[in-house]
């Protein structure tokens, strides 16, 4: 490739940190990415290794043992890791979601108990979805009620990412006051995890997306996270945070697809010149590189908004919406530019396309993100800002 990678994709957060993660991702994660995807494996060893470097708690305050870094650094981490493997990126993301729910809404006792465990590398999942409730979680079939000194939870969760390896779960259940959020460690009696009919996805394969069966699971009263009945608001705020990082994962996928197509076009010859010599191929790549660069800036802008807590619903949604769509377009372009090689099971381009498309649904579909941006715009009209 004629451009050094750092010139094409300059560090947008701290340079030394970004390049160190890029090196680690290239050397340690990329060689395993194909097998993780093909065998649908949870990359336990790699995630524990990342956690050992403090990466699974990068934004967690230092008082809990976390990295205390800003969200631009977190975005750089998720992007660089996901250039190598989006499956490793989403494995980090579910940990971030569970951790963020406790950091933002947990009682002091819950924070003191679990956040240091996150800093030490606790693996976690974030369980909202059920068979009959995906985008709309305003009511749930999983129910919880108080019984003496415990909450008792009964129901079933579906599509739960990382649950084949998670040691801890954040779970939404409906109580008499409305949807509420609970902390449930893996070793809680009457909690079972199994592979349902719909556990295998074609993209973002970091192990099967498991079902959680809760058959009168009892947790202490302080394992209610935040306020009873305010679970939807808390879950959406947590998603406002994680959507920016999901956008970073999509940028990682887009970069990987672009880099692969660019390299291939620079080497493959037809009609007496390289693919890159054809203006038609240059135009594909020119569109892609400029689209990725724009979406990448949007994701970093959303990270700054998280640091300043400025309209995080708008910016998180814009970042994920644009980055996931750009990733899908880039991955499809990459297949085209690579010709038959792009369509081979032996090449990584099918994985990029499957991962990119799946992220237009997981963690908030594009339609739901547009609804969130729409609500932001409506608030502006109501406040007379137009
Ligand atoms: C790879 C993957 C990983 C996942 N991981 C997790 C996880 O870890 N934890 C978890 O809890 N869940 C997880 N999910 C579930 C995911 O959050 C849901 O799939 C998602 O919220 C969409 O819900 P649904 O599939 O039920 O679609 P539905 O809600 O049934 O929606 C179907 C279609 O209708 C559209 N739609 C719905 N409502 C509206 C509306 N108001 N306006 C316009 N269009 C609308 C949707 O955008 C979609 O296109 C995962 C899903 C996937 C694919």
**Alpha carbon gap, first and last residue:** 47 Å
Count of beta strands:
10
How much of the residues is beta strand, in percent? 5-15%
The CATH superfamily of the largest domain is: Butyryl-CoA Dehydrogenase, subunit A, domain 3
For the record, the CATH architecture of the largest domain stands as Up-down Bundle
Low-confidence parts, pLDDT < 50 over ≥5 residues?
none
Explain what you see:
The protein is α+β, with helices and mostly antiparallel strands and 386 residues long. It has three domains: 105 residues, Acyl-CoA dehydrogenase/oxidase, N-terminal domain (Butyryl-Coa Dehydrogenase, subunit A, domain 1, Orthogonal Bundle), CATH 1.10.540.10; 105 residues, Butyryl-CoA Dehydrogenase, subunit A, domain 2 (Beta Barrel); 150 residues, Butyryl-CoA Dehydrogenase, subunit A, domain 3, CATH 1.20.140. Helices cover 54% and strands 15% of the residues. The protein contains twelve helices and ten strands. The strands form three sheets. Strands 1-4-5-8 form a four-stranded mixed sheet, covered by helices on one side. Strands 2-3-7-6 form a four-stranded antiparallel sheet, with no helix packed on it. A hairpin with a 2-residue loop joins strand 9 and strand 10. Helix 7 runs parallel beside helix 9, helix 8 packs antiparallel against helix 9 and helix 9 runs antiparallel to helix 12. The longest helix has 37 residues. The chain is globular. The termini are far apart. 52% of the residues are buried. Flavin-adenine dinucleotide binds next to strand 1, strand 3 and helix 12.
């Amino acid at each position: 490739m004629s451009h050094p990678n750092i010139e094409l994709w300059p560090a947008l957060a701290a340079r030394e940190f970004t390049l160190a993660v890029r090196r680690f991702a290239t050397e340690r994660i990329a060689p395993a990415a194909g097998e993780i995807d093909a065998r649908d494996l949870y990359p336990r060893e790699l995630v524990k290794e990342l956690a050992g470097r403090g990466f699974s708690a990068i934004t967690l305050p230092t008082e809990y043992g976390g990295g205390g870094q800003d969200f631009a650094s977190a975005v750089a981490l998720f992007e660089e890791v996901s250039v190598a493997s989006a499956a490793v990126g989403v494995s980090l993301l579910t940990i971030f979601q569970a951790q963020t729910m406790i950091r933002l809404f947990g009682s002091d006792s819950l924070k003191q108990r679990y956040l240091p465990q996150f800093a030490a590398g606790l693996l976690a999942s974030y369980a909202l979805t059920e068979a009959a409730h995906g985008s709309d979680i305003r009511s749930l079939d999983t129910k919880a009620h108080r019984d003496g000194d415990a909450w008792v939870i009964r129901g079933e969760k579906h599509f739960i990412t990382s649950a084949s390896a998670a040691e801890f779960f954040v779970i939404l259940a409906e109580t008499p006051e409305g949807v509420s959020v609970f902390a449930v460690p893996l070793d809680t009696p009457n909690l079972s995890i199994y592979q349902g009919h719909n556990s295998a996805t074609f993209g973002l394969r970091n192990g099967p997306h498991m079902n959680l069966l809760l058959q009168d699971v009892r947790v202490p009263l302080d394992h209610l996270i935040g306020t009873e009945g305010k679970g939807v608001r808390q879950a959406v705020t947590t998603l406002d945070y994680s959507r920016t990082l999901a956008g970073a994962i999509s940028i990682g996928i887009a970069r990987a697809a672009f880099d692969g197509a660019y390299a291939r076009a620079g080497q493959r010859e037809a009609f007496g010149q390289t693919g890159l010599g054809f203006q038609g191929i240059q135009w594909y790549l020119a569109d892609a590189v400029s689209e990725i660069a724009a979406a990448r800036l949007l994701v970093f802008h959303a990270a700054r908004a998280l640091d300043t807590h400025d309209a995080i619903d708008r910016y998180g949604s814009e970042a994920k919406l644009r980055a996931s769509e750009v990733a899908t377009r880039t991955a499809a372009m990459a297949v085209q530019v690579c010709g038959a090689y792009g369509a081979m099971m032996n090449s990584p381009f099918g994985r990029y396309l499957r991962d990119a498309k799946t992220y237009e649904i997981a963690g908030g579909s594009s339609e739901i993100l547009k609804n969130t941006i729409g609500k932001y715009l409506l608030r502006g009209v109501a406040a007379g800002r137009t």
